[in-house]
Amino acid sequence: MAVQKDLLTVDDVHGAWCIIPTPSKPEASEWQCEDSVDYDEVARSVNGLIESGADAIMAQGTFGEGATLTWAEKSKMMEVMVETAAGRIPVFVGVTTLNTRDTITQLKFARDIGADGTMLGVPMWQQIDVPSAIKFYRDVAEAVPEMNIAIYANPEAFKFNFPTPFWAGVADIPQVITCKYINIAQLHLHTMVSRKKIRFLPIEFDHYDAARLDPEFHTAFWSPCANGGPELTMHVRDTVKAAIASGDWGEAEKVWMQIVPVIGNLMPPGGFPEFSRYNIQLDKARINASGWMNAGPCRPPYIDAPEAYLEGARKAGAGWAELNEKLKAGTL
Questions:
Q1: Could you read off the pLDDT of 62-119 as tens digits, one per residue?
Q2: CATH homologous superfamily of domain 10-229?
Q3: Res 2: pLDDT
Q4: How far apart, in Å, are the Cα atoms of 235 and each of 52, 138, 318, 330?
């Protein structure tokens, strides 16, 4: 039976939208493992993020290993997340598949168990064109009108650049209220062509710059780093919010200047395209090194990565944990 909820709107999208990995059991890297998810860690992490002040949770994207989970694992994880959140904050699950019909089937399941929406990328077997991409989201919204959509705009993962005409087209779909956004170089342009019907979510260490561009509108971001200690993520959110209110950006800039070099350790030579070749492995190494969440090992076939890249990821995780401890001690 479908759980009846009011649709969220763009005005409901604010603050830290935390994206979690799918915690795994020690044997998860072996193909023989039939149920690889550590559901207890899923519940602990979701509850921990909510109690720390997260504004929403998204899951089952790339470093959430949505492509390497079985449907049995993915659907049970959805249930655990929704049950743990218990309506306290929105939960957006991942239903990206290789085709429209499977995505709709999975989204109907998510609707029926009470999820609020989906973080959804385009199918990527073929390189999709703009009209087909817009139609994909229209079809999904028409099939499951009760569910909100956060567009997962990752050009490396989906072989699609999410160009300006795409944002102009999907802005007219009421269910599309936000998106996980990678590069803020075109943020102002895409915000304008979407007529501010979509609240773009830059990554948390771009939140400062995005808010300076448009303090009244750019009030939200996506966070992969809350999994390494959520207090620092909430501090990023709160210092920027305070700066918007007061006009004094000094403290927000101070925080930004400390986190950017730490997270910079995660990015290998070659930038985002090279990172995307190994992002599951690198993000899990970062999260495990932070000590706040036990993300566990990766699932096949995306298991190995160059050791130099992994070392940078571990350095990013340890550095985030160190900053988080300084924050809690009042010495940041």
A1: 999 999 999 999 999 999 999 999 999 999 999 999 999 999 999 999 999 999 999 9
A2: Aldolase class I (3.20.20.70)
A3: 55
A4: 10, 37, 18, 12
pTM, two decimals, is 0.96
How far apart, in whole angstroms, are the C-alpha atoms of residue 123 and residue 229? 32
Q: Report long-range pairs for 162-171 (Cβ below 8 Å, ≥24 apart).
A: 163/130, 164/189, 164/190, 164/193, 165/130, 165/193, 166/130, 166/133, 166/134, 167/193, 167/194, 167/198, 168/193, 168/194, 169/130, 169/131, 169/134, 170/134, 170/137, 170/194, 170/198, 171/195, 171/197, 171/198
Do 146 and 113 touch, CB atoms closer than 8 A?
no
Query: Which amino acids are annotated catalytic?
Result: 180
Does an H or E element contain 117, and which?
Answer: strand 117-120
Please state, in angstroms and rounded to a whole number, the distance separating the CA atoms of residues 306 and 278.
Answer: 9
- Read off the tokens for 2: 């479908």
Q: Tell me: the pLDDT tens digits for 282-315?
A: 999 999 999 999 999 999 999 999 999 999 999 9
- Cα(151)–Cα(153) distance, rounded to whole angstroms? 6
CA gyration radius, the chain: 19
Q: Are 201 and 179 in contact (CB under 8 A)?
A: yes
CA separation for the pair 246, 265 (Å, rounded): 32
- Work out whether the CA dihedral 148, 78, 223, 30 comes out positive or negative: negative
